[in-house]
Amino acid sequence: MPFELMIAAVVAGTAVQAFSAIEAGKQQQANLEANARTQQEQARQVERAAQDEASRLARDSARLRATQRVGFAKSGVGIAGTPLLVFEEAADIVAADVAKTLQGGQRRATSLRTGARLSIAQGRSARRAGLFEAGTSLLRGGGTIAGQFA
């Protein structure tokens, strides 16, 4: 193989390796950023679901208290003393359930958002790794060519 042709082959091969490394890093970054967008959307959905569930709990509790009031009124029992304590205890239980539901949704959403931030950071690292791999390929190819002149 003529010397010039061998040098051209090494240069071409090195360029292809460098280009491939850069493109692979970019593609990996794009995939991880898409994953991050999905995680962020999931976090919004989890928060909405927790808020909907908390609202449902509060509505159901209000209906139950109204039904209890009607029942007490029909039976001639006033809303004082024990019935009042029952109402207050039920309200406290529902408030705790609503808070627990919202906190659970917030924790899951925070976890998803943390995962999204991690995916973005990993994407940046992948892009940088592709650039470093491209640089390594160029240096290796340059070393191969330089070795031909030694």
Tags for this entry?
mainly alpha, single chain, 0% strand, 150 residues, 94% helix
Low-confidence stretches: none
List SSEs in N-to-C order.
Answer: HH
Helix tally?
A: 2
Structural class category: mainly alpha
Secondary structure elements and pairings:
Blueprint: H1 3-75, H2 82-149
Helix pairs in contact: 1-2
Outline the structure in words:
This protein has 150 residues and is mostly helical. The chain has one domain (3-149). The chain is 94% helix and 0% strand. The chain has two helices and no strands. The longest helix has 73 residues, at 3-75. It is rod-shaped.
Question: What's a concise summary of this model?
Answer:
The chain is an all-alpha fold and 150 residues long. It has helices at 3-75, 82-149. Helix 1 (3-75) packs antiparallel against helix 2 (82-149).
